[in-house]
Amino acid sequence: MVIPVEGENIQIHSYKHDGNIHRVWDETKILKATRHLVIGGNDRTLVTESDGRTWITREPAICYFHTDLWFNIISMIREDGIYYYCNLGSPYVYDQGAIKYIDYDLDIKVFPDMTYSLLDEDEYEFHRMQMKYPDVIDHILKRNVDKLVYWIRQRKGPFSPDFIDIWYERFLMYRS
Q1: Where does the chain bind Mg(2+) 2 (predicted)?
Q2: The Cα angle at residue 54 between residues 5 and 170, in degrees rounded to 5
């Protein structure tokens, strides 16, 4: 299994269940990579949507991907605290210089005070019917929403108090 090399820049590609590209982040610096885990950092990176529209991220972010989890976590570092955007999606694969995963619409937004909101349930239901998500995917995603909420409440993984400080410092070392 090929894994990204620490210090290299890679892209992040999210797809939809039907195989169509959803979104591409142009550049993310690899901060840690193992057979099961990738932690990356980016700041003001170009993002391209499936319809060709582009935008640039506004703040530094630390990205967390795992091969055994049906979610990934983007921690956005803002002046008023850390905001987390958690995408429910397939475990990632690393292929041709990019982290790739299937985005399953459901998201959890976590605020600096660790309150959170489940987002896009209507979009999930629409795509579940339109793209005929198998029941097994539906069950896996609902279990992973519960797991993610547990991680948030327990301050586990990227939600732990020191996680972002440690990885953001590493990201800044690459920028100097």
Answers
A1: 105, 107, 120, 123
A2: 30
Mean pLDDT (whole number) for 44-49: 98
Whole-model pTM? 0.96
Catalytic residue among 23, 58, 128, 143: 23
Would you state the pLDDT for residue 161?
84
Q: Tens of pLDDT along 51-104?
A: 999 999 999 999 999 999 999 999 999 999 999 999 999 999 999 999 999 999
Q: Which domains does the chain have, with CATH numbers?
A: 9-158 (2.40.380.10)
- Quote the CA–CA distance of 137 and 48 in Å, as a whole number: 27
- Can you tell me the distance from the alpha carbon of 86 to that of 106, in angstroms, rounded to the nearest whole number? 9
Q: How far is CA 127 from CA 18, 60, 122, 131, in A?
A: 10, 30, 9, 6
Has 87 been labeled as part of a binding site? yes
